[in-house]
Amino acid sequence: xxxxxxxxxxxxxxxxxxxxxxxxxxxxxxxxxxxxxxxxxxxxxxxxxxxxxxxxxxxxxxxxxxxxxxxxxxxxxxxxxxxxxxxxxxxxxxxxxxxxxxxxxxxxxxxxxxxxxxxxxxxxxxxxxxxxxxxxxxxxxxxxxxxxxxxxxxxxxxxxxxxxxxxxxxxxxxxxxxxxxxxxxxxxx
Amino acid sequence: xxxxxxxxxxxxxxxxxxxxxxxxxxxxxxxxxxxxxxxxxxxxxxxxxxxxxxxxxxxxxxxxxxxxxxxxxxxxxxxxxxxxxxxxxxxxxxxxxxxxxxxxxxxxxxxxxxxxxxxxxxxxxxxxxxxxxxxxxxxxxxxxxxxxxxxxxxxxxxxxxxxxxxxxxxxxxxxxxxxxxxxxxxxxxxxxxxxxxxxxxxxxxxxxxxxxxxxxxxxxxxxxxxxxxxxxxxxxxxxxxxxxxxxxxxxxxxxxxxxxxxxxxxxxxxxxxxxxxxxxxxxxxxxxxxxxxxxxxxxxxxxxxxxxxxxxxxxxxxxxxxxxxxxxxxxxx
Lengths: 189, 333
Fold this sequence. Notes:
heterodimer; A: mainly beta; SH3 type barrels; CATH 2.40.50.140; five-stranded antiparallel sheet; 1 helix; B: alpha+beta; BirA Bifunctional Protein, domain 2; nine-stranded mixed sheet; three-stranded antiparallel sheet; disordered N terminus
């Protein structure tokens, strides 16, 4: 089984910790001049997303996690699973609700997402930074109000709810930043 | 400068520090030479390559070899200029200083470069307290941020107890382990096991050092006897040794000893460390018999200290990665 020594630790390296796949965010080499060396490491648990701090004895070896990130196209949701395809190979993967997490409220057919695979199984899905979605429900705005001040909630075709300016109406296509869940602008089509 | 530690940095030919920092280093070296000249301390130079190695299990040397005919000799890049300088002291050199490169394998990080520069000096007739004062005098000259600051001298036991809540000298491994739980350090037990010295290193690094960040210039003295290294044990209290460390804003800058001159005890410590290395499966160390011979001849009463120049420059330049004070950091060497 592949493993890494703490000397190889760096941001982005994927390791196994307490049976969970994790990604190293930051590694600090700590050593009192005459004493034992340690690696103090900030790690993200890729299953739960939680960030924790751990310490390793220097040059200790840690099991590598078989984790890869692949760009895939979202195909469809069958009610239980979300199906994705690698465009180059047509290889298909299906991901459950836990792996989707927050991504599920942004995905529309054809969107290209980053799917993180652990032992060839989808572990998490990152939606594109920007998506374009149609508004399916929102209060009609006041006529003539183009200032956008205040705003109102709008439900999108995927079920996500974002705040939009008052002048934006049902049926319009808008651009949303999925990292913040914020309206960016009307989409020109 | 984090890019320096990545493998794809082969193409960066440029220096990893700015030209201002290159000039700053030259300036700092000039100040050091002026400081010691005014105090009649002689600048010396000793070999970087030696037939003997350091023995400390926590410090890993680089080794090479010298081929002469069919015979191969192991050679070691020094992990510190200490042994050679002590041989000069035994040969009646008087007080000496050196700006020397030292090499330690595997030490790479924000504050570590495997090849680094030490300022090491020895003062004949100085006890540890006098050396702490001189160290403070020098640091105030080299680091303008310390102007008007007085060094705070603190016993190891006090800072450790205040920060961790247990007595470093008398606490049991169970006490250390309970303290680690209080500070939410879940890995401590598996790392430190039953080894007191590792427990001390661990808790000092994780709990005490962050507290020292608030002290401009701290001298921590009376280290526990199990961390004596090349220091004498204290005459009236054998639980501690005549060693101090200097910290500027929590950054460890240097390590000073009232030097052990007992050749038998030194030889025993070497043997214990060599056995420890063997036990831990580390590359075999070669005991410095020439140092032992020099101690037998007689090392004058003296105290000595090594200061990490690269870290000092980091403080002076206000940068937070060691490669930013090196012409070419490890990733570009």
